[in-house]
Design a protein that fits this description.
- By secondary structure, the chain is mostly helical.
- It has 14 helices and no strands.
Length: 303
């Protein structure tokens, strides 16, 4: 029997204004919050919402590759945009119903990656009649892997900023404290542990040597008024880096895919992904490491 006793609440303040681009601030997140409030009394779990996002993106891929222009682009774009709403609603629903967990965070990330692999490979498959059986899959897999790496960097850096400036933990802190997710070794949980460690390892590889900084942040956060001190220093230092994280995220890709398909081929998007987006990633990594050095120096100087 469905529990209807859950009272919808406002999402906890985990989306500061500086962490939202225009699309999230004005469209996706307000709609996601409304969807989460509607789902809260139904008993639907946040994980079910995360999984439904995969189906939404698969529907977008089908529209882009199976329908006729202009319906293909219009419906493909709408469903891809709807995915952003669903992707935000699972986190809002988890916070409203007190069901946040490292496992849910990981499942959300896995569903995001699976969704875009499906979309990229579907777009690549649509190129086979014209390009043959080799180059479309090269483009598709290169685009999917590039998107995974770029999104890993963007999301992990935003979560690191959220931790440093607002004290909101993420998978990195769950691992450091031996959370239940990382202690399980049976069935699907072993796969989850492997994926979580891989996600964190990839993020740390791009972040560079910041172990000293992370340890210092943890020590300061445990002090009286320590979080206020961290926030005062972190916010101005990382303000610009957040713009790079926005550009590397999934929001920027949604209109680019639609434009490329409107031009008649996903090739234009794949080329943009391989050149401009990867160049932006390299620049963002360098800038992030410079910000980390500046933040570490500021913390040491402040005593």
């Amino acid at each position: 029997m469905t529990d209807t006793s859950v009272t919808p609440a406002k999402p906890s303040p985990t989306r500061p204004p500086e962490m939202q681009d225009w699309a999230n601030r004005t469209i996706y997140h307000p709609l996601a919050a409304r969807l989460a409030r509607a789902l809260a009394p139904t008993g639907i779990s946040p994980n079910a919402v995360s999984l439904s996002g995969v189906a939404v993106v698969a529907g977008s891929a089908w529209c882009y590759t199976q329908l006729i222009w202009p319906l293909s682009v219009v419906l493909g774009l709408l469903l891809n945009a709807l995915w952003h709403v669903v992707d935000g609603a699972d986190g809002d629903l988890a916070r409203m119903t007190n069901r946040t967990s490292p496992a849910g965070e990981l499942l959300d990330g896995v569903c995001d990656y699976v969704s875009y692999v499906i979309l990229y490979l579907a777009l690549a498959w649509s190129m086979v009649p014209e390009w043959g059986m080799v180059w479309p899959w090269v483009f598709g897999w290169a685009g999917a892997i590039g998107q995974i790496v770029q999104n890993n960097f963007a999301e992990s850096q935003k979560r690191t900023y959220l931790w440093r400036a607002y004290g909101v933990p993420w998978l990195q802190q769950a691992r450091n404290t031996d959370a239940d997710l990382f202690a399980r070794r049976q069935g699907i949980f072993e796969v989850f542990v492997m994926l979580a460690r891989g996600y964190i390892k990839m993020a740390n590889a791009m972040k560079g040597g910041s172990a000293e900084l992370d340890e210092l942040v943890e020590r300061i956060a445990a002090q009286p008024d320590g979080q206020d001190r961290l926030a005062a220093l972190a916010r101005p230092i990382y303000a610009r880096s957040l713009h790079y994280d926005h550009m590397l995220g999934t929001n920027s890709r949604t209109p680019l895919i639609a434009i490329s398909m409107a031009l008649g081929s996903p090739l234009w998007f794949f080329l943009f992904e391989a050149t401009v987006m990867n160049a932006l990633l390299v620049h963002a990594i360098r800038h992030q490491r410079a910000c980390d050095r500046a933040f570490l120096a500021a913390l040491k100087q402040s005593g």
